[in-house]
Amino acid sequence: MQMRSDRTQRIESELQDARVGLMEATSAAAEAESTVTSLRSVIEELRRDNESLHVQIDEFRNAISKDRAKQNEILTLAEKEAQKWRLKCEESEEENRKLKMDKATAEKQVDQLKGRISNLERRINDTNKQGHLKSVAKMTATSTSEKNAVVTPKNASDLGVINAFGSKETFSSGAGTEEGNKRK
């Protein structure tokens, strides 16, 4: 009987251990169930956040692509405008070069004309000096011959009139008038 009671005690002890194990397992299962529920809610929240982030990323990409398209358009317009200004600058530079060349040409022409005027003035002065010397020589010769000779007119028509150009016109012939016209 002792064996029987030992065996009964062993069985009761095993039963007690099984009950404790079952309770522990039940509590672990309940805890696992609550953990699974909590994990499911966390997973659902993360999934919603993930979807929200994907939507924001798509919106951001769309905004960036639109902004990039605008920037490309603005860049294209700016490049066209810059090209126009470069062409205008080149045209202005070309016009400036032409004006400088025209100015240089005009200055050369002015210098040439000044040189010609200077030469003409010198020639006129030389001619006037020579003419003045000749007229002084004539006047000297004339005054000497006038001192020596007295001229008397033969008739009234030989008395000539000196015209505005210093030539002598006579009333009797047109020769004096022609001589005055030649000097004009």
Give a brief outline of the structure.
85% of the residues lie in helices and 2% in strands. With 184 residues, the chain is mainly alpha-helical. Strands 1-2 form a two-stranded antiparallel ribbon.
Can you describe what's shown?
- With 184 residues, the chain is mostly helical.
- It is 85% helix and 2% strand.
- It has two helices and two strands.
- Strands 1-2 form a two-stranded antiparallel sheet.
- The chain is rod-shaped.
- The model is unreliable at 169-184 (pLDDT under 50).
Task: Give me the secondary-structure topology.
Blueprint lengths: L1 H147 L12 E2 L5 E2 L5 H9 L1
Q: What proportion of the residues is helical, as a percent range? A: over 70%
Strand percentage, roughly?
under 5%
Strand order of the largest sheet: 1-2
Summed over residues and divided by their number, the pLDDT gives a mean of: 80
Sheet having the most strands? 2 strands, antiparallel
Structural class: mainly alpha
| Strand tally | 2
Order of helices and strands: HEEH
Shape: rod-shaped
User: pLDDT under 50 segments (min length 5)?
Assistant: 169-184
Number of helices: 2
Q: What is Rg?
A: 66 Å
- For the termini, the CA-CA separation is 183 Å
